[in-house]
Amino acid sequence: MNKIICLFFIAAFLFCLTANATFAFQAYDGKLDLKGSIQQTLNIKTHQDERDIRYNSFRTTVRGELLYKFKETPDLDLNFYTLANYYYDAALEIDSNMRYSVRHEGGDSDKYRDVRRPRDSEEWLKETYFDLKYDDCRIKLGKQLVSWGETAESRVADLINPLDLKYIIAFPDWEDYKLGLWMARMFYSPQNMWQDLSFELVVIPFNFVETRYPPAGHGAFVGQPILGDGKMQKVLDSQRRDTPDESFKNLELGFRIKGYSNIGEGVDWYLSNFYTRLDSPIINGKSGMNRLIRLMLFNNPGGRVWTYPHYNSTAFSFSTTASKIKSVIKGECALNTKRDYNYGKAANNANEIKERNLLTTALTFDRKTMIPWLSEMNRNEPFNFSFTWYQYWLFNHEYDKRTGKYILGETGRDSSLTKFTLSVNTSYFFSTLIPAVNIAYETNGSSTIVGQLVYMPTFHWQFVAYYQQFNEAWGSDSRYGNQVGLSIKYDF
Questions:
Q1: What is the mean pLDDT of the chain?
Q2: For position 29, which CATH number holds?
Q3: How far apart are CA 33 and CA 377, in angstroms?
Q4: DSSP designation for 266
Q5: Which domain holds residue 452?
Q6: For 257-293, what is each residue's pLDDT tens digit?
Q7: What is the C-alpha to C-alpha distance for residues 4 and 488, in angstroms, rounded to an integer?
Q8: Is 26 within 8 Å of 32 (Cβ atoms)?
Q9: Are 214 and 87 in contact (CB under 8 A)?
Q10: How many domains does the chain divide into?
Q11: For residues 375 and 368, is the Cβ–Cβ distance under 8 A?
């Protein structure tokens, strides 16, 4: 604990020294732009389970962005961009209980590295690509992050990049958790096109990266620990072992049309199709279940346990303004077809695979509202409200009440799931102090609450404190995911 106190005092001291400093710079006659940030975060668990872990994370993150402009003319632009995000997490140094649980549940101390730093360049090198623009055409070649969709808290159309879940909180900024993929991304924006149409093609020829999870025994695991000599870690390691080899069999294709329709106050809209693989695997049928059992008992599965099948996602999204209700309205829907799911009573006996279609929809209302007395006290600063409705429908759900078998998907034992989210924030003292509240409620009874306070005394410094609470429908174990977070960030 003394290390933590010292670190935050050092950060406060550095703030006093560098409050008006700047480190971002340009070179080579403005062709080279370099900027970045350094951030220290601390996540403290409010409840301890059998592991008795107190700190989920104590992470130092260094982020750097580089842009080099090779050529800039009216018809031709050629740029190079790279984004790296490297961290060191000292949670194991300040929490001996986590060291023990990772060693015990992970099988040995080799898993310490997965807690402390990125596993490989797939995790720390976010983007590095060449950007060529000529006339109405543009192409980006290299490792990239892609954002498709309009809603934020749940991913509907935004499915291209896999996620790194080693360090995740409720209501995340997905860009911080996405893993880049090597791809070719091509754009065509013809002039004077009907409805201002433009086109985008994404080709991922071979690169596949699976969803990344923290090692077994980490404090981010919710609920009671799975005891035993690395049994849970064997499952996680087998998922990585069964990922597809780098080959053109991993081909993923995405196509998106962007347009603007002069309807009402104007509508920006997108229509996309993405042929992809599941980033998180399913059990490879009956043979996979048998091999999983052999893996747990004898550490020798004798073949593939998991599979990452292809599926297709077609999505439509839009954004418009509605002056009568003083709101910005955003919506999207995605139909995932020919997607494979496991079928059974629970994950430990889901030895069948069934192909199903999933429809997800979302509708968001953003509005700035003046609240009497509160806004007047704060130089008439408005409150920003964002309300979103999410709906998940799994077609032909096939829940068998007699046997208890059901499709193991996003909707649980029900064929649909509805979720509502509400976000409220405002600012005080010339936008230097920003309080915010985020609430999510699912119709199955689960809810999530996050309260956050952001202090930005200068353009470069940011101090954040937040509290998140999970209330899951299935029991009180969700309290083990509750945590307090502290963050100090310096942008240079």
A1: 87
A2: 2.40.160.10
A3: 41
A4: -
A5: 2-491
A6: 999 999 888 999 999 999 999 999 999 999 999 998 8
A7: 12
A8: yes
A9: no
A10: 1
A11: no
